[in-house]
Amino acid sequence: MEETMPRGDYLGEFEQMVLLAVARLGGDAYGMAIVQELAEATGSEPAVASVYAALDRLARRRFVESEIGAPTPERGGRAKRFFSLLPAGAEALRRSRDVLDTLWDGLNLDPGARA
Amino acid sequence: MTRRPHRPTPPRWASRLLAALLPWQYRDEHLGDLHEAFVRRAASGRGARRWYIRQVIRSLPSALRLRYQTRNDNPSGIGMDSFRQDLRFGIRALLRSPGFAVVSTLTLALAIGVNTSIFSLVSTVVFLDLPMRETGTAALIQGANVEMDINQGGVSPADYLDLVQRTRSFESLSALAHSQWVLTGGDNPIRIDGLQFTAGLTRTWDLPPVLGRGFAQGEDREGAPPVAMITYGYWHDQYGGRPDVLGRTIRLAGVEHTIIGVTDPRLEVANFRRARVITPLILNRAQPDRSARYLFVVGRLEPGVSQEAATAEVNRIGADLAREHPAEDAGWRLWSRPVRDALLNRNDNTILLLLSLTVGMVILIACANVANMLLARATARAREMALRSALGAGRRRLVRQLLTESLMISLAAAGLGLGFAYALNRALVLISAGQQSAFLMAKLDSRVLAFTLMVSLVAPLAFGLFPALRASAGSPDAALRGGRSVDGGRAGKRGRATLVTVQVSLALTLMVVASLLARTVINLQTRPLGIDAKDLLTARIDLPDAGYESAESRRIFFAQARAAAAPAMSSDRVELVSVLPGVDAGRLRSFLVEGRDTGEGRAQPTGLLVTVSTGYFDYVGMRVEEGRGFAESDDATSPPVALVSRAVADRYWPGTTPVGQRIQVSGDSAWIRIVGVVSDVRNLGRTRQGAPDIYRPFTQDAQQGMYLVARTATSTGLVAGPLRDAIRSVNANQPVDAIRTLDRAVHESHGSENALLTLFVTFAVFALIMSAMGIYGVMSYAVSQRRLEIGLRMALGAERGKVRWMVVSQGARLMGWGIAIGLLASFALSRLLANLIFGVSTTDPLTFIGVPAVLILVALVANLVPARRATTLDPAVALRAE
Fold it and tell me: Is residue A6 situated within a structural domain?
């Protein structure tokens, strides 16, 4: 399978958020649940398709994997796709956080602290 | 007031829109997510619809992006893997029903075969590689005579020389003539075809020799050292393509010619392709006969001069010449036309158009038939399709699968069809006896192969798409439950009925064309030949110039030849004639009648000069109707005499007799007395009038080329050897050609007509069989669909006859429409034929009643078989089958 995204070592902000949501939801990480998780954290609801687009990219980088659940009536007879975090995904999250921590270290962006 | 519990659904248009944009990998879960949230919001009454629509609209860009991300991964969708799968399924499906596979492949193969064959003919003519460059600035100059219905005649040498002198439109003019040579120096003297070029021809045509040089100025004058060029083909066949051929000599008509060049291979097209050697065309003022129009003249326009201006000038010069030389040129005009236009005559164009239309119909009929078979098969496969659809195959996938099968049939048919086309082309060459050069030249070249491939790629769309859409449209639910509705319902039946109607009308049209052509050919060929051809054996002898310059030497040769040939041909007598009746025409000459003024601008009387031995008329059974025949006393020393045919007498001496009148034939100053009128022989043109022949006795007009004619019961094969030996005993270097019976010669001269007729009859029979198969298919299918109904009717006591009538009348309705449409189309098409047919009207009642009658008869038989099957059905079996 061809790698369609540029092979970066780091995650985009939205990808990071989606990946964290998957990790937080544990075994219950499917599309709508992730959207709600993000909505609660950010205060605004992302488009469902943008979440799937991010998840598709993450799956291509082997950061997440997914499996199809059973169809349910309240979903109009459609199945859920459950995502789960792979070790590489967890590693990527940690690395991103380390990099950010390093960059933040000793930095103070409060207006009064600049002089 | 209680509200009915109401289950909310998201707006359909929004979910459809999103579903269309999302890639299949994420379609279900995405829609499911939205649905779930929608239901939850709707339950708590929080503007669920608005939320849903907003979500969908905001999702659109990402959906597109998602589609882009996933464009390359296709576990079961589009791609090579699935194509291979389609192929595998297709092969399996076709193997499961070999009958269908074989019949449909053969049907298409025949149709593709005739299409390929005809296309190879058409492309030969239309894309003819002319043996000259820059055809836009080259023009062909031809003579025309309205009164004699000659559009594309040659130009006489004297007229040509005047034209060269007077024209300002052409930078150069060149002339070409056909010639024949006796080639000696090998084991046997052989006759070869040649061309004669004026010196500048290779330059005018822009066709430089591939080796050596062309003729120089001065080499086309009397007395110049004899030189020759040879054609590319002859160079390879005879000299192995070696360059040291230049400077060698070749012995033509007893004279050594030095080979100075090899012509471009492009010269070998159309009727130039028989030529082996090219010699200079020697023209001089000493050839005063302007009515001998045998030159093929091509001019190269001056830069800046248009074809129209050249035509106007050539017309003017022609008119001047007609005024200056009324004895020969009156009534004749000169034309200049762009080369390509001039080489295709009108009738050829009509035939090509007709052939293209016809093969188009043939392939349509074949496609209709295969489509019909596919439609019937679609019913049989409804369950298979339903199952695959239920297992998740999309409609597009199913259509693709079915089209793949169609494509496989079509490609197999194309392969077979190429073989068939090859065979058909060979057969046409045989049937036409080499008379039509297009048949000889038709090749299955890359252009033809491309055409065949294109047809075989387009055809599946024509015959496969509609059935495929039909087959994949059924609801899997209904099909799997085994309901009767899976046959495509009314629409499916109507589709098949339309196809049959189209087939019947196309078949009728083709049969009408074939019938009109058949009657034309029969009419042409059953015109009385005018002589008793029974057991007449003929052989041609052409004497070379060298050694036979004097008339006396020719008389002596043929006298000896007749004496020697008679025992060799097992005959007591051998007579001479310069042209064979019904095979070739005499020399076209205009003539003056003593004491008669032709009148300003009117064409001179013309006739075809034929030379015969004294006893010829009597021997072949022609009657002297007025005056006397030739006598031994008409010899070189007595006053010149002639006989004219009945046709000439009726045309130029209506109501009176030409006997005793004197005529002067152009090119000869002698006055010739007409001593008799002889019965007509068949005209080579398309007319019932006899050939306008003027006969001269061989004793007074000793030609170089004559036919020996003898009545003999011995077969041609047995005569040929002894006859050649006999002639060689007279002159060891003299070949004999065309040893054959007159019947054979006449048959060969009709070769291209017969070939054309064979083609159209083949098409018509093919179309008839196809439409009979179509009707049979539809009707037997209809019967099988109505088995239950018929069984019930019979069980309830319906008479067999009534049931049978019910089935037959259903088929008759289809045919009625087909015949009505076909008749209209035939009337329209028959106008195209007006110029091609002879002795039969374009609205010939026999054809327009007979052809539908035959079609109805065949169709009824095709219809009766299923009808019988319906009535012999055991009601119990029929009912149990349900």
Answer: no
